[in-house]
Each structure stands twice: as C-alpha cells, then as structure tokens.
Amino acid sequence: MRLLNVGAVLDRERDIHQAGPKTKVSEQFDDKTAEYAILSHRWGMDSEVDYDEMTGLMKMDKQDMDEVRQRDGYRKIIRSCEQAKKDGYRWLWIDTCCIDKRSSAELTEAINSMYRWYLNSQTCYVYLHDVDEPTFPTGQDFNRFGKSNGWPEWFSRGWTLQELIAPKKAEFFNKDWLSIGAKQDLTPTLEVITRIPQAVLRDGQVLSTDSRERPCIAHIMSWAADRKTTRVEDRAYSLLGSFGVNMPMLYGEGLKAFQRLQLEIIRVSSDHSIFAWNPKGQLGEYGSVLADDPSSFRGCHDIENVDPYGLLYTLRARSMRRDIRGKVVDRVKLVWLQRRVRSLQLSRWDVTDLGIQVLLPVLRNPNSPATLFKAVLPCSDRYGNLITIDLDSQVTARSAQHSQHISSIPVTVSSLFSRYRRQLFPS
Question: How far apart are CA 86 and CA 90, in angstroms?
Fold first, then answer.
C-alpha cells in the first residue's frame, strides 16, 4: 500500500514556496508491518485531490497549485496529517490520494485489500463533514440529515460500512476536526444507527472467523441494504472484505457485479441464508434465486442459520401434527434425511454453468398447482419460523412426483424463482 509521509506533507505545506518539484510525500509499505493511521470520510463533489495532484503539486504552475490547495479535499488531507502527527503517527492512508486510479491493476488490488488495510491500521479518523455540534448525534434528526435517514451522511454510504467495522480503533470528528467520540464508547449508538451488533463493532475480525458471533450472510447483507454508492458496481465491490472474498473489478457490468459477489461467497461458504432475501416485501416471480441488489436483504437482520440437527428436529416436530394448511411431513422421508445429517451432502454446493445445485428438503404445497414445491432452507427468523423457497420447475416436479409430502433432492436453484415468506413454515 502507498502511505503519505505525514511530516513531508506538512513540511511541504508550511514551506510551499520553498519546496522543490522532487519533494516526495508518499512511499510504498506492507500493511502488515507498517504502523499507520487511516481516514474514513464522505467524498466531496469535485473537491477531492487525487494521487496525481497530490504527488505532482509542486510541478504545477501557481494558479493550478492554488486551486488545488483551496479545495475542501486538500484541507481535509492537511487536517488529517495534523491529527496523525499529534497522535504520533508518521504515516497516513487516504483513499483519494493514495491510490493511482489510472492503473486498473492498482485499483483492483486496493479494493480487494481495503478491508484488511482498515483492519491493520492503528487508528481510523472518521470525518463527519455535516456535523457542526461538539458532540456525537444521539438521535435521528431529519431536519439536519433529511437525505440520510436522520443521521450524518457518512452512515448512508456503501464504502463506509467496512470502514466502520474493520478498524480496531476509530475516532469521530466533526466538520471542524473536533473529536466527538471514540468507536468503542459509541457502540450502543452505532448499533442503533446501523443495526450492526456491538460484538462486531468491537471486533471486526469476527467477520473473518467461524465463531458463533459471526452473523449469517443474510444478516450481514442487511447492513448494506439502505446504503448508497456513486457507481452501481461499488454496492458489490464495497462488500468484498466483509465476506472475505476477492474478485476482479469490471466497471460497466452493472448489477452483474452483485451476482458475481454472491457466487464468490457461495464458493467459499455453505451458508444457505444467502437465498433468504426479501425483494422489498413483494411476492412475485424472479428469474434467479440470487438477489439483484443488497436492498433485497432489507429486513433480514433477524435471520439465523439452523444447524442440520435443528432442522431435523423442527421437521420431526412438524411430522407429529398437521398445520392449518394441511401440510404433513412424511416420517419415512425424515429417516432418509436423518441418515444424512452428518454427511457433507447437506452442506455441499455445486456451482456449474447450469446453476447452483444444493440438497434441500422439498415439500409439496397442497394449496398450489401440482408443480409447485417448497424447498426448506436451514434458516429461521427471530420467531423460529423456517424460511422456504418456492420452486416451479418441471425437473423438480418429476423428481418429487413420487414423494407424498417430503423429499430431499438436488435442486438447481439458479434457474428457479424464489420468494421470501416470513412465518410461512412455523415451528
């Protein structure tokens, strides 16, 4: 990663007319060994200073140099450096001027590494440009922050999600660079604003482990549901670090970026909650079981995974009674499922050109046409209601036609449509 030399930047600014054109203000480092501060902020419209301008400032004529130095983005760099120096840091990373975006290779590396860079920083300065008060906002204020759900705009942006979670230490500043609170002290308020659990806010490494504190995929996706990015592709790219996956940047691909992200997640995870998305609460037919956008996961903050034994227990409990819809679980098929609980079949994913193949319990829906079946996901909401996917496929129908009530068959889900229904399958 490329870091700003805090002392060199401030020395150049102090003696701007004495510094020579060869003044070096940045160097390459390994983020695993370097000690550095890092900035998180909301980009300004046409006011930021890029890598070429920051490193080539002394080569400009006076008029162009003065124009750059008068920008809000340049003052933000200087104030960040001043804060870093005050805190004893020699090196600082800022996304606007520490990435040479003319190089697609460097941009791809930076985006794929950014979560780690924030995680490995010694401290993160969070600059809230729209906060005037000397204290951190403790309640929604739609008069001041009407365009960002009543909170500072920083909380509505896609990239700042990982910049909030990853750093071990973060300090918030208002528009005048007055400290208004530390992340560790503000976790209860931050949880209210973002719905991110305090355990995750206190330790971003929770997302990179298999600990019990790690939320399921649908839950993590829900944190990004209402966030915005300037480029549609960045809604996917800004989530790479949160899921520990990598992929090349293809600006111009549009919504396909989020489809690719989900496929990358599926390749490294057997978390079925990735299929438990809610398309804005609407019931309809969709061409893919994969969501089009993070907003499809709005309302999924209470989704939890159910382990195979828990799923089996719930289905067995259902086999003891008939619900109001008249669906019954076949106990003979439950025995088949029970024998496979410990196997890898229930957690194996096969991603091919034909679709995504998973093994799920399938129920016939007696209240719908004969070709409609329900695949039961090992996921539930806060009330313990299992989540199902409606299946409509001739292949699925033929495969299940001899099963009276439940079967466990390979389902190629990417060619089917899905609906998310809360309380559809109560335990």
Answer: 10
DSSP letter for each residue of 328-342: ---HHHHHHHHTTTT
pLDDT > 50? residue 127: yes
CA distance 285 to 393: 12
- The 3-state DSSP class for residue 238 equals coil
Contact present, 333 and 376 (Cβ < 8 Å):
no
**Phi and psi for 58 in degrees, rounded to 5?**
-75, -10
What is the distance between the alpha carbons of residues 393 and 259, in angstroms, rounded to a whole number? 22
How far, CA to CA in Å, does 66 sit from each of 16, 71, 102, 206, 396? 10, 9, 24, 45, 68
Yes or no: say if 303 and 219 are a contact pair by the CB < 8 Å rule: yes
CB 165 within 8 A of CB 190: no
Whether the predicted pLDDT of 221 surpasses 60: yes
d(CA 281, CA 133): 38
User: Residue 235 in contact with residue 229, Cβ under 8 Å?
Assistant: yes
**Confidence band of 280 (pLDDT split at 50, 70, 90):** very low
Give residue-wise pLDDT tens across range 40-77.
Answer: 999 988 899 999 999 999 999 999 999 999 999 999 99
pLDDT for the residue numbered 273? 92
CA distance 72 to 68: 9
